[in-house]
Amino acid sequence: MKSILTIAAVSGLLAVMLGAFGAHVLKKMISPEMLETYKTGVQYHFYHTFALLAVGILMHFNSSKTLKWSGWLFIAGIILFSGSLYMLSITGIKALGIITPFGGVIWIVAWMLLAVHCSKEKI
After folding, report:
1. CA 88, CA 95: separation in Å to the nearest integer?
2. 31 in helix, strand or coil?
């Protein structure tokens, strides 16, 4: 639980920093299309950081393997989905876009596991 909450806090910190970097520095360096791609990475990074925070809080009350897997999959999704969009935007290497959907699928599984946990456990 503590590690998930700590990672959620660090993820939120990184999302703010990367968002500020995109808004103030990167916008002068990349195309508007790539900046939109970068912004999408930041947006979904934030959404799933909040989900990760919720998982960490739920783990405080009633942890389960399902909930732990959900948390670790939210982390993996942030790395793969948002990370690939950050790298694609900065480097322009289009092949990195192949990674993004894997992060999305991982998030779908993470949300499903969270739903399973919440439907089975008294919260």
Report:
1. 8
2. coil
Is-contact 110 84, C-beta < 8 A?
A: no
Task: Enumerate residues 6+ apart whose C-beta is below 8 A from 123.
Answer: 58, 61, 62
Report the alpha-carbon distance of residue 110 to residue 104 in Å, rounded.
10
- Predicted confidence (pLDDT) per residue in 30-44, tens digit: 999 999 999 999 999
Number of domains making up the chain: 1
Q: Which of 43, 75, 42, 41 is nearest to 56 (CA)?
A: 75
pLDDT in tens, 78-111: 999 999 999 999 999 999 999 999 999 999 999 9
User: Given its phi and psi angles, is residue 92 left (phi above 0), alpha (psi -120 to 50 degrees) or beta?
Assistant: left
Cα–Cα distance, 35 to 19 (Å, whole number): 11
Tokens read off for 45:
């990074």
Q: Supply the mean pLDDT for the chain.
A: 95
Q: CA-to-CA distance for 98 and 96, rounded, in angstroms?
A: 5
Where in the sequence is the domain holding 114, given as residue range(s)?
2-120
| For helices 100-120 and 83-91, angle between their N-to-C axes, nearest 10 degrees | 160
